[in-house]
Design goal:
The complex is a heterodimer of chains A (116) and B (116). Chain A is built from no helices and eleven strands. With 116 residues, chain A is mainly beta. Chain A is globular, with a radius of gyration of 13 Å. Chain B is mainly β and 116 residues long. In chain B, 0% of the residues lie in helices and 57% in strands. Chain B contains no helices and twelve strands. The model of chain B has no long low-confidence stretch (mean pLDDT 94). Classes of the chains: A mainly beta (116), B mainly beta (116). The A-B interface holds A 2, 34, 41-44, 46, 49, 57, 91, 93, 95, 102-110, 112 and B 33, 35, 37, 42-47, 50, 91, 95, 101-104, 106-109, 111.
């Protein structure tokens, strides 16, 4: 149990285009999902907390207009990188936490974004 | 401050050796959770263990064991008889209340290489 999927697993896009990444909790419901960014050989950096049915909460320094987050249901959250630039190239990871019970986050496999 | 420190950036050992990964945390919360995650080369974070601040019992799971000591604010992870498949980056994390929301604070990670 507690499986989180992400799609796509990797994507290459041209500068100026937008890219949408999906995060799904496959076998449990999650009112809260998280989006992280990870640069090579570095730790995870929390970008935003995604709450079902309400606006996402962004961490300081993260542009909300650039990284659009939508959490439309208890099993799906999406991250859209708008007008992508090469500096947005990174490994994006989502996680989900159970509605109740254990407090650990379960992570998706990540999406590697390359902007050319 | 809510902080996790993994002082060992990289560790390299020969297969079958025992290895301990250190984790020291800081928190102002009286109730908190500590976690260990494994990130293999594929990139997906794998949940290993959760420890409640009220439970200082050590835990053993196969070749893995964890030593939680509140007196020293440490939550160390030991792999016994290491195997090549244990090679990965290991993250220690603290669930902390930050700006009214529960978030994971990650350490910088320890890259563990097990050589055959």
């Amino acid at each position: 149990g507690a499986v989180v999927s992400q799609h796509p697993s990797w994507v290459i896009c041209k500068s100026g285009t937008s890219v949408k990444i999906e995060c799904r909790s496959l076998d449990f419901q999650a009112t809260t999902m998280f989006w992280y960014r990870q640069f090579p050989k570095q730790s995870l950096m929390l970008m935003a907390t995604s709450n079902e049915g309400s606006k996402a909460t962004y961490e300081q320094g993260v542009e909300k207009d650039k990284f659009l987050i939508n959490h439309a249901s208890l099993t799906l959250s999406t991250l859209t990188v708008t007008s992508a630039h090469p500096e947005d190239s990174s490994f994006y990871i989502c996680s989900a936490r159970f509605l109740t019970g254990p407090r650990e986050q379960y992570f998706g496999p990540g999406t590697r974004l390359t902007v050319t | 401050a809510q902080k996790v420190t993994q002082a060992q950036t990289e560790i390299s050992v020969v297969e079958k050796e025992d290895v301990t990964l250190d984790c020291v945390y800081e928190t102002r919360d009286t109730t908190y959770y500590l976690f260990w995650y494994k990130q293999p080369p594929s990139g997906e974070l794998v949940f290993l263990i959760r420890r409640n601040s009220f439970d200082e019992q050590n835990e053993i799971s196969g070749r893995y064991s964890w030593n939680f000591q509140k007196s020293t604010s440490s939550f160390n992870f030991t792999i016994t008889a290491s195997q090549v498949v244990d090679s990965a980056v290991y993250f220690c994390a603290l669930s902390a209340l930050i700006q009214g929301a529960q978030k994971l604070v990650f350490g910088q990670g320890t890259r563990l290489t097990i050589n055959p």
